[in-house]
Amino acid sequence: MTNDIDRAGVAKAYAAWAPVYDMVFGKVFDEGRKSTIAVADAIGGRVLDVGVGTGLSLSDYSRTTKLHGVDISEPMLRKAQERVRAQNLTNVETLSVMDAKNLAFPDGTFDAVVAQYVITAVPDPEATLDDFMRVLKPGGELILVNHIGAESGPRKIFELAFAPLARRLGWRPEFPWARLVNWAAKHGGVTLVERRPMAPMGHFSLIRYRKG
């Protein structure tokens, strides 16, 4: 089975999940989601939330944080727009259908870029990370929460068994930490600020990079 993930496949997978996404994944991803938001709110200013999905995170941000959300899935974004209207989230400035690798924002637009569970679900993670850094202001932060593949032990065995289902969800389950290390070294001008394990069982990590 190929490890490649194509853009159309990701969009199709998340369109299918849109009606039940909050119910199925809300609690599983809760700690990572709230941790990234706390970091972004501490930075403040203008924040880009990539892969905003159904907008589950939007109401957790401070109302003083100016939010722009993008997602590849139009059905997901329709739910996010309904949530913004229902909860009167006036700090959400835009919600747009957009490819994470080709963000339609000028260089240096945002104080922080948040990407929750996104990097392992895009066809070209390195190029996507490059574009995240492009739209950050100097000194801005890229805040990721994502699954990082285990190198050995029981978690690696579980991940290998889970891989076929993960790919149906549009995820790349074997994503190694070395891939981020190599990206940062090649990109340059990127400083690792933090890598913090998240529940459940350290299966996810919060990762922060500063630009410049």
From TrEMBL:
<feature type="domain" description="Methyltransferase type 11">
    <location>
        <begin position="48"/>
        <end position="144"/>
    </location>
</feature>
<protein>
    <recommendedName>
        <fullName>Methyltransferase type 11 domain-containing protein</fullName>
    </recommendedName>
</protein>
<dbReference type="InterPro" id="IPR013216">
    <property type="entry name" value="Methyltransf_11"/>
</dbReference>
<dbReference type="Pfam" id="PF08241">
    <property type="entry name" value="Methyltransf_11"/>
</dbReference>
<dbReference type="GO" id="GO:0008757">
    <property type="term" value="F:S-adenosylmethionine-dependent methyltransferase activity"/>
</dbReference>
<dbReference type="InterPro" id="IPR029063">
    <property type="entry name" value="SAM-dependent_MTases_sf"/>
</dbReference>
